[in-house]
Design goal:
Elements: E1 4-11, H1 33-45, E2 51-56, H2 60-73, E3 78-79, H3 117-134, E4 139-144, H4 146-156, E5 175-181, E6 184-191
Parallel strand pairs: 1-4, 2-3, 2-4
Antiparallel strand pairs: 1-5, 5-6
Helix pairs in contact: 1-2, 3-4
Length: about 200
């Protein structure tokens, strides 16, 4: 029989961000109280799953989101730089598009304001394959960020990588689960185990 493996990609919970900046890869941005509750809700929803491997983006908010699940399952949280948030020129700035930023918006297909979509998708795919292999025959949990998870999903389903951010199906503390038989991707599932807590704010997530 073909081995069945599932890799759950978890977007981190809500972040404490009182100044409303696009925080990107900046250090020091941790989960809000709501974000902590979201992480706990996810851990409860995964309690009966056959998870044998947990890995996270190295950013604080992602590691924090992984910790309740890791504690409940008695597993360590490994970190993988390939799961990190995308690079973004607007990092550390408040949302707003004054004329001085227009040159950064000239090419939405690459995009011109940050890390190329193709690069994001490829590093996430490579991480996915390594995580899948580490949990072969079982399940794994990988904590990352909205854009990288969405780009991975677009890439693996053969869709174009540039898109309208408003159309991403990747809410805070949501799970995008990739199901494999051997090394063949056979399905992708999506769920929101923390939806009952409210949508939260995902600025720069």
């Amino acid at each position: 029989m073909t081995e069945k493996t599932v890799v759950h990609f978890l977007r981190h919970g809500e972040v404490h961000n009182p100044t409303g900046v696009l925080y990107g890869r900046l250090p020091g941005f941790k989960l809000s109280t709501l974000g902590e509750q979201m992480a706990e809700a996810v851990a409860k929803s995964l309690a009966e799953r056959d998870i044998t491997h947990i890995v996270s983006s190295p950013l604080d908010r992602a590691v924090q989101t992984a910790q309740p699940s890791a504690a409940a399952m008695g597993l360590p949280v490994e970190t993988d730089l390939r799961l990190i948030e995308s690079e973004n020129w607007f990092e550390g700035r408040s949302v707003g598009f004054s004329p001085r930023v227009w040159p950064k918006l000239i090419n939405p297909f690459r995009p011109s304001w940050g890390e190329p979509y193709k690069h994001i998708a490829q590093r996430m795919r490579d991480a996915l394959h390594d995580i899948r292999d580490a949990a072969r025959g079982h399940e794994a949990l990988a904590v990352s960020h909205q854009l990288p998870i969405w780009e991975l999903r677009l890439f693996l389903t053969g869709r174009r990588l540039w898109h309208d951010p408003r159309n991403r199906q990747c809410a805070l503390a949501s799970l995008t689960s990739f199901r494999y038989e051997g090394t063949s991707l056979v399905g992708i599932d999506y769920s929101e185990p923390a939806a009952h807590l409210g949508p939260g704010k995902g600025l720069g997530a």
